[in-house]
Write a structure and sequence with these properties.
Length: 127
């Protein structure tokens, strides 16, 4: 992700209000969508996420979870057991986002063939 700060001062609260680009950058990360898809179904443990999201390393999963929690999209609950049990669940804000991600997925499915045709035409013209 870009190091550029896409947040602007928030006149209402004195903090920063994130721009659309930053919000999209956060949730469109390679692993974020998978985490959001899994956690909207209900509480899920770290190892369950690790198994469900093909190719994610423990480090990247940890960073993704922290960032989504920081952005208010996940709630992390630690249970006082030995070993500690940690669960993640999507917030209401993340569930709302999930609905929009489903819409984007449906759009991509509807237009997959058209995109493939357009790429083939473009590629044949470019060569």
């Amino acid at each position: 992700m870009s190091q550029r700060n896409d947040c602007v001062p928030d006149d209402a609260g004195g903090g920063e209000a994130c721009t659309v680009l930053e919000a999209l950058g956060r949730v469109s990360g390679k692993w974020s969508i998978g985490v959001l898809m899994e956690t909207t179904r209900g509480p899920v443990r770290f190892t369950e996420l690790e198994r469900a999201i093909t190719g994610v390393s423990r480090r990247m999963l940890t960073l993704t979870l922290r960032n989504l929690e920081r952005d208010g999209l996940l709630v992390r609950t630690v249970y006082p057991t030995v070993p500690p049990k940690v669960e993640y669940v999507a917030t209401d804000m993340a569930r709302e986002l999930y609905d929009h991600l489903l819409g984007l997925t449906e759009w991509a499915e509807r237009h997959r063939a058209g995109i493939a045709r357009a790429r083939a035409v473009y590629d044949s013209a470019a060569s």
